[in-house]
Design goal:
The complex is a heterotrimer of chains A (about 325), B (about 350) and C (about 375).
Chain A: H1 4-34, H2 42-60, H3 63-88, H4 92-114, H5 139-143, H6 148-166, H7 168-178, H8 180-185, H9 190-217, H10 230-240, H11 245-268, H12 278-296
Chain B: H1 6-29, H2 34-46, H3 49-73, H4 82-99, H5 105-134, H6 139-158, H7 191-209, H8 211-221, H9 223-228, H10 233-260, H11 271-281, H12 286-308, H13 315-340
Helix pairs in contact in B: 1-13, 2-12, 3-7, 3-10, 3-11, 3-12, 4-5, 4-6, 4-10, 4-11, 5-6, 5-10, 7-8, 7-10, 7-12, 8-10, 11-12, 11-13, 12-13
Chain C: H1 6-33, E1 58-63, H2 72-87, E2 90-94, H3 102-111, E3 116-120, H4 125-134, E4 139-146, E5 155-159, H5 164-177, E6 182-187, H6 196-208, E7 213-217, H7 225-238, E8 243-247, H8 249-261, E9 265-270, E10 281-287, H9 289-302, E11 310-312, E12 318-320, H10 332-347
Parallel strand pairs in C: 1-2, 1-3, 3-4, 4-5, 5-11, 6-7, 6-8, 8-9, 9-10
Antiparallel strand pairs in C: 10-12
Classes of the chains: A mainly alpha (about 325), B mainly alpha (about 350), C alpha/beta (about 375).
Chain lengths: ~325, ~350, ~375
């Protein structure tokens, strides 16, 4: 039977690549929502960019091109959402959901066409062995032998947190989200800030999808089985994180851990005595934790005041 | 409040035309013929009795899901959880039906429907409570509960309720007395669509002809103004929550008792989410939604026929088209509406 | 009147241009690089050497997924197209058939005069039985497994144990090829009727290598590549498995990916799945669908349906796919052993166990 130590190590090690795409996506959404725009389409954008980056890397052999292609597609979807919601003023929830459908089906469509002739699979980016640290017992393989995309997500979260809280750009974004009228009077171009934040959110969602392929699974699957709800969870993480990129690290990792526990328990046959289908019970745990969190911490979850409200100059 | 203008009625067809233009461009880019594709869509959804009945069948859950989203939307309660509520409603309806086998249809079916409605409402109860009492934005709890609902139904159909005689992950069949009666022999045209249409009329009546409906719409248009005008916004939200969950539960049981006759894993290809698209396409009006559900269902069934036809257009492209249509209509409507409406 | 903000407009115009450029670019690249692919549906009516009646037959196939699975659904489509090309029949294929649409679709085909309706996928079983009873003059074919009692005489169904031999052989091969004495099977879901696949494999492994461990994981879902990936990793890292047998559809894609990355050997299922992992797919346990269907077709053409209508118990349908990259790695002695085993099974001297249990065993 599997030892406890093995289990813990497996769970922790698996939690990091599981966290990575949710973290990228959620910090992007933090920026979008901080400026006042909700983007519900992340799940679809991640799926589409996963396909695009997989195909690009498969065809060109370059991880960089794949990442760029995924980010470009994400940016394009972000621009579409920005156009519909900021420029035109369509209801943000509905527009986001339509983009979810659109991006998801476009990714699946592309995959169906391409795989008529070839099966798309790439070897994910190799892990980086951080010298000395990766040799530490237990902690070494878990924390210090991940690939650059995993580390990148944490570093980017910290960086974007610094930008949001310590730069004038960040200040403008927060101002726009809290009180667009005042920001406008202060000379800030509200809609420009929103457009840029939404496009950034889309770009990071694209990066999230690309990282799922190039930094973890190396494959694509249709019918939203690849992203499998983690794009939606990224939106929930934003609330967990009280719209802070720093806290998004903790929030995304909490969910990554939840999935990881479920996967490893299923793999080790734990709880299988509950009968067939018990795996689904395990898979539901991260979501149950999310609901409990929302119940317990409801008081702190005050969103940016202008979230989902389009801004029109009077 | 803003008066609907001529622009609004023109903008809708304009949006459809725009989306068909975009769709044609995409088709051409991938080597398909737009003209034959459009023809294929139409003949593929209404060309034969079967296809028509399939389209009509599909309207049932779509319409109910759309109404579920709509009624809450009008009070600014964003119920994204329709998908989960329809699964739990189907589960409750199944459990009730399994006990009601000995009763005749006139008794069993309404009880089963009631159970399904209760199941859907129950699943919305927690997010409803969180919104009313704790001021938690309902978008996120309802969304997360969708996943939990899916896991619950996947678990029971693979485990405790699984039919040991079937190779598939599903329950034993429902008792025949609980099967929704078929109206036209050998088709899928069953009572489910009538239930959906009746629901549309009821919602229309409630929203536009009752005091409650007025309060709901006032709460949605401007919660603060409504509150100061004496409307209890919380009560409106509670009312729409109960209705919304019930409608979602009905959406689920209509599929299970109307066509599948078993509760099967993943029986919903996303009706809950598609219902939101249909509601938007119907401009969030109950009667408009009826028309929109016909259109959306026709596109889906027509798309399946196109996939089988000589051109073999993958169905995913049709799904993309559905999204493009809704988005285009919304964009054009809003744009035109902003330019032509009187008063601000 | 609204005073539009110029910066906002120009910014969004740029964004719009980005979108258009991307769409056009993607479309252009796709057109330029896609080879002429076989369409998923064709109506074949090639002139065949047989007499005219053959070309008047119409076959409909229903599958629950699409050809991207490189497995059951893909195989169904390929075999159906093969029937059209070989016999000149008119063939229509419905893919991605949703559960709720099964009945109407089959009825529709029956009413359009299709002579043969073939449903490929266990989710069709109940519906096929019901529709077949309504259309006694239409022939129905059910695959990949059937373990019930209730078919009318116009139905032929493939018995559930059809791949048992193949899995036994695969086990024999794995037993000999494993260097860590540990091999593992990952099943999407445990189903009593199909559990023979595990037991046959296990028996095969132990027949050629009694000390080897046969591990089993049941992720519980057919559609989650991430879980499949993680479960495979767990098997590889903690159980030191060096040969993996995924029978898990989309979940299995994750298993295959994890195996390819760690250079773990794979054994595929249903079709020759070497394309999914050219370097690591040692062989696949084939479900010889053509061998099952061809006699059926011939009986239909000859008018002798009554000789095969009913459940077809055929353990001879499982065989091993070519070894591809492993052909030079597998020693001749092992290949000889496999041939001997196959001969033994055929002659009856070796008995492949056909056992099935309601719940998975706690292995090893």
């Amino acid at each position: 039977m599997v030892s406890y130590e093995d289990l813990v190590v497996s769970i922790l090690a698996a939690s990091l690549p599981l966290t990575m795409p949710m973290l990228y996506a959620s910090i992007g959404e933090v920026y979008a929502e901080r400026s006042g725009v909700l983007n519900m389409g992340i799940e679809g954008v991640m799926s589409l960019s996963a396909f695009v980056s997989l195909w690009t890397t498969f065809s060109t052999g370059s991880y960089l091109y794949g990442l760029l292609a995924g980010m470009a597609v994400g940016a394009a979807m972000g621009a579409l959402h920005a156009f519909a919601t900021v420029r035109i003023g369509v209801n943000q929830l509905i527009a986001g959901l339509m983009i979810y459908f659109l991006a998801l089906s476009m990714g699946d469509f592309g995959y169906v066409i391409v795989t008529k002739t070839t099966y798309l699979h790439v070897r994910p980016i190799s892990p980086v062995q951080i010298p000395a640290l990766s040799n530490l017992p237990v902690v070494g393989p878990i924390l210090f032998s991940q690939n650059v995309l995993v580390y990148g997500s944490f570093l980017l979260a910290i960086f974007l947190g610094l930008v949001l809280y310590r730069t004038t750009w960040g200040l403008k974004i927060r101002a726009v989200g809290e009180n667009p009228e005042a920001a406008d009077s202060a000379g800030i171009n509200v809609n420009l800030v929103r457009n840029l934040c939404v496009i950034l959110g889309g770009t990071l969602a694209g990066l999230a999808g690309a990282s799922l392929v190039l930094g973890y699974l190396g494959l694509y699957a249709t019918g939203d089985t690849l992203v499998a709800g983690r794009g939606w969870i990224a939106i929930v993480v934003v609330i967990f994180a009280r719209w802070s990129p720093y806290k998004a690290i903790a929030g995304a990792w909490l969910f990554g851990l939840g999935y990881s526990v479920a996967a490893v328990f299923i793999g080790a046959g734990i709880f299988s005595s509950l009968g067939p289908g018990s795996g689904y019970f395990l898979l539901a745990i991260p979501y149950i934790v999310a609901i409990i969190f929302m119940l317990v911490f409801h008081r702190g979850t005050k969103s940016p005041s202008s979230l989902t409200v389009p801004y029109k100059r009077k | 409040m803003r008066q609907p203008s001529l622009g609004r009625y023109v903008s809708y067809p304009l949006g459809i035309v725009a989306s068909l233009a975009i769709f044609s461009v995409i088709l051409l880019a991938f080597g398909y013929n737009p003209i034959t594709s459009m023809e294929g869509l139409v003949s593929g959804s209404f060309g034969t009795t079967f296809l028509t009945s399939e389209t009509i069948f599909l309207m049932g859950p779509l319409l109910l899901a759309a109404l579920a989203f709509l009624v809450a939307f009008r009070a600014r309660f964003y119920n994204i959880g329709v998908e989960g509520q329809l699964y739990i409603g189907a589960l409750f309806g199944y459990l009730a039906a399994a006990q009601l086998g000995g009763f005749p249809g006139v008794v069993a079916i309404p009880l089963m429907l009631l159970a399904a409605a209760a199941g859907g409402t129950l699943w919305l109860a927690l997010p409803l409570f969180m919104r009313i009492k704790l001021q938690v934005n309902e978008i996120f709890p309802t969304l997360v509960m969708n996943f939990i609902a899916l896991d619950v139904v996947n678990w029971v159909t693979a485990g405790p309720l699984k039919n040991p005689l079937s190779g598939n992950l599903q329950t034993p069949p429902l008792p025949e007395s609980t099967w929704l009666p078929v109206l036209v022999k050998s088709t899928q045209f069953n009572v489910g669509i009538l239930i959906a249409l009746a629901a549309a009329l009821v919602i229309y009546f409630v929203l536009y002809r009752t005091v409650l409906g007025y309060e709901i719409r006032a709460s949605g248009a401007s919660p603060r103004a409504a509150q100061s005008g004496g409307v209890d916004v919380s009560r409106s939200i509670l009312a729409v929550g109960l209705m919304s969950g019930a409608l979602a539960g009905l959406a689920g049981i209509v599929v299970v008792a109307g066509v599948d006759h078993v509760l099967a894993q993943n029986f919903s290809p996303g009706y809950g989410y598609q219902g939101i698209a249909v509601a938007a396409l119907g401009s969030f009006q109950p009667l408009g939604i009826v028309v929109a559900s016909v259109l959306y269902a026709a596109l889906t069934i027509g798309g399946e026929s196109l996939q089988q036809g000589a051109a073999a257009i993958p169905i995913e492209l049709i799904y993309a088209l559905q999204a493009i249509i809704v988005l285009s209509v919304l964009i054009v409507q809003k744009w035109v509406g902003d330019r032509t409406s009187r008063g601000r | 009147m609204q005073i539009e903000n110029r910066n906002a407009i120009s910014n969004v115009v740029v964004a719009a241009i980005v979108i258009v450029v991307l769409v056009v670019a993607v479309a252009g690249v796709v057109i330029a690089t896609s080879k002429t692919s076989t369409t998923t549906v064709t109506t074949f009516s090639s002139s065949s050497t047989s007499t005219t009646p053959s070309s008047q037959y119409k076959l409909a196939l229903l599958v629950g997924g699409d050809t991207t699975d490189d497995g059951l659904n893909d195989q169904g489509v390929q075999v159906a197209q093969w029937i059209g090309a070989t016999y000149g029949w008119t063939v229509s294929i419905s893919q991605d058939v949703a559960y709720s649409s099964e009945g109407a679709l089959m009825t529709s085909y029956a009413q359009q005069g299709y002579n043969v309706i073939w449903t490929d996928g266990n989710q069709f079983i109940g519906t096929t039985e019901a529709i077949a009873a309504q259309f006694p003059h239409v022939y129905f074919i059910m695959s990949p497994t059937y373990d019930g009692d209730n078919i009318t005489s116009n139905v032929v169904a493939l018995g559930a144990q059809n791949q048992a031999n193949g899995y036994y052989l695969a086990g024999v091969l794995a037993g000999k090829m494993t260097k860590t004495n540990a091999t593992g099977m990952i099943l999407g879901q445990w189903d009593a009727e199909q559990s023979f696949e595990f037991y046959a494999y296990q028996a095969g492994v132990h027949s050629s290598n009694p000390s080897a461990q046969v591990y089993l994981t049941v992720p519980g879902t057919w559609g989650d590549p991430t879980i499949g990936y993680e479960d495979a990793e767990t098997m590889i890292n903690t159980n030191h498995v060096d040969i993996l047998v995924p029978i898990a559809d989309t979940t299995g894609l994750g298993v295959i990916s994890a195996a390819t990355i760690t250079n773990t050997t794979l054994i595929g299922t249903v079709l020759d799945q070497v394309d999914l992992s050219p370097t690591d797919m040692m062989t696949s346990v084939l479900l010889n669908m053509t061998a099952f269907i061809q006699p059926v077709i011939q009986h239909i053409l000859a008018g002798t349906w009554s000789q095969i209508g009913g459940q077809v118990e055929n353990l001879q349908l499982g065989s091993l796919a070519p070894f591809h990259a492993y052909d030079s790695i597998i020693p001749t002695s092992v290949k000889t052993l496999l041939n001997q085993t196959a001969a033994g099974i055929a002659s009856g001297t070796i008995q492949v166990p056909y056992t099935y249990t309601a719940n998975p065993p706690t292995t090893p």
